[in-house]
Design a protein that fits this description.
The protein is an alpha/beta fold. It contains 12 helices and 19 strands.
Length: 517
């Protein structure tokens, strides 16, 4: 909603002029002040966008303007000067915005009407100026304006203290504590020659081409700043006609980000070395042992050799899972729109499912790394197929790998969908969460007791001598690499249900029914 500018009218007949103005126009909200009036008090009590001083010989016009200037350097002032009441030189010295020499009988209301556009424009300029002032004083960014000669003409309070101590020390030892200390100076006055040459060259490029420079990473200058980095962006500073007056720049301290990136690089290097050692130093002797085992079978004890072979295969499986853990933990940086149903079916075809069945009850599309999502689903499916099938009551298992269940559920008497070991085959369901973005994988097996659910994702956790205990740890690692949350609960049929939530906005495009039976 537009509100008219508020103007304080100071003159010998101010109430009459104000009343006539209100009857003829509402373009300015005029308030009357008749001398001798305390202009400073009037300004403190109200919020005005301009002051009009209708000066004649009856009062001291310059004193009124001086009071305004004591209150504000930027508040616009208009002077109506009759005869010799207000000298033009004095008006210029006091920073009067508009000076009009008038006769005693000039039409004050009509003249005020011609000032509306000026007052509105100056109000808009002052508001923009206060917004810029607030930005430069409070935002923790190094923001600066330079003219075409790369001299600082306006800058934020953060510039001298962006990095290191709360001041900027030039090569000659001079310290600049405030933004005012830097005004009028170029980079050559503040930084070493090599840094200054680069900065001024960037300024010249922006001024001459009118094109911006974005996110240039630089090593910060100053004492004890060997590990301090900043990123700088520069853009043309243009006037209202589009002409380039200079450069506006923004510099941010990115030291913490650089430290994190360096730490991540080092961590990845360590993981690669770790994976390489496991791959070469363990797999090579395993291959030799497996090869020699074939020759020894002809004259050795078969029972012992079978045990050796099982142990070697177990170690080989462990190595493979550890390698997967090391590689799948990297953050997914470029996810792609992925059809969950397609990936689920592809994963199911890889797993040895025996008599188990898959029910895909979703048409969700996720932002994911398709290959890593398939690895996640393969591990969950394998867990359900291997450990979710239930034995008949007379052969109930005491343990379940990963699930740790001591219960069993008999199959219906009139059906027989058991596998080759007499176990009732599990049904695995993939669906979409109803209460939040994400998906689930559930089965109708024996489930996981509540006291075991917090441990199943731990590396090495297993209730069997056959598994490596890393399958579900890999699941959690891949989920976290996507930024997802993963938890294990009970399915509607009493089995296990893995829920993958906290999917970023827009990742789940379509939502299917939340069911797992």
């Amino acid at each position: 909603m537009h509100t008219p500018p508020a103007v304080l009218y100071v003159g010998p007949d101010a109430p009459t002029v104000t009343e006539r103005w209100r009857e003829s126009s509402g373009a300015l909200a005029l308030s009357a002040a008749t001398p001798p009036v305390d202009v400073s008090a009037e300004l403190r009590d109200g919020q005005f966008d301009a002051v009009v001083c209708d000066s004649d010989a009856s009062f001291d016009g310059p004193a009124v303007v001086e009071a305004v200037r004591e209150y504000s350097d930027s508040l616009p002032v208009v002077v109506f000067a009759a005869a010799d009441s207000f000298a033009p030189a004095t008006a210029a010295e006091l920073g009067v915005d508009s000076y009009l020499q008038v006769d005693d009988d000039f039409d004050r209301v009509a003249t005020l009407g011609r000032l509306v556009s000026l007052v509105e424009r100056r109000r808009a300029e002052r508001r923009e100026s206060t917004m810029l002032d607030s930005l430069l004083e409070n935002v923790p960014l190094s923001i600066y304006f330079k003219d075409r000669q790369s001299r600082h003409v306006r800058l934020s309070d953060e510039v001298p203290r962006l990095t290191g101590p709360p001041y900027l020390e030039s090569p000659d030892g001079k310290r600049h504590h405030t933004a005012e200390d830097i005004l009028g100076k170029t980079d050559y006055d503040l930084y070493p020659p090599e840094l200054s040459e680069e900065a001024v060259a960037d300024d010249r490029t922006v001024v001459e081409t009118g094109e911006s420079i974005e996110d240039r990473i630089e090593h910060a200058y100053g004492d004890d700043l060997e590990e301090t980095y900043v990123t700088t962006s520069k853009a043309p500073w243009r006037d209202e006609h589009g002409d380039v007056l200079g450069v506006v720049g923004v510099t941010r301290d990115i030291t913490e980000r650089k430290k994190y990136e360096t730490q991540l690089e080092r961590q990845n290097e360590r993981l690669e070395r770790f994976a390489s050692v496991i791959s070469h130093d363990l797999r090579n002797p395993l291959e030799v042992a497996l090869g020699r085992l074939e020759f020894a079978r002809a004259e050795g004890d078969e029972e012992h050799f079978d045990a050796i072979e099982r142990a070697l295969h177990r170690i080989d499986a462990l190595v493979g899972d550890v390698l997967t853990l090391a590689r799948e933990g990297e953050t997914v940086s470029d996810p792609q729109p992925t059809e969950l149903a397609d990936v689920a079916r592809a994963a199911w075809r890889v797993v040895e499912t025996d008599a188990a069945t898959l029910d895909v009850a979703t048409d969700a599309r996720l932002l994911a790394d398709p290959s890593r999502l398939q690895q996640l689903l393969e591990n969950v499916f394998r867990n359900s197929v291997e450990h979710g099938s239930t034995s008949p009551p007379s052969h109930a298992r005491e343990d379940s790998v990963e699930h740790g269940s001591t219960s069993s559920r008999p199959q219906a008497d009139d059906t027989d969908d058991s596998d080759e070991y007499g176990r009732n085959a599990v049904t695995v369901t993939v669906g979409t969460l109803a209460d939040r973005q994400g998906f689930f994988v559930a089965d109708d097996g024996p489930g996981i007791p509540p006291e075991h659910r917090d441990r199943v994702f731990d590396a090495g956790y297993s209730t069997s001598d056959e598994g490596t205990g890393l399958g579900l740890s890999i699941v959690r690692t891949i989920a976290e690499a996507h930024g997802w949350e993963v938890e294990v609960t009970e399915s509607e049929s009493g089995g296990v249900r893995f829920e993958f939530g906290a999917v970023s906005d827009g990742a789940a495009v379509d939502a299917g029914a939340d069911r797992d039976d």
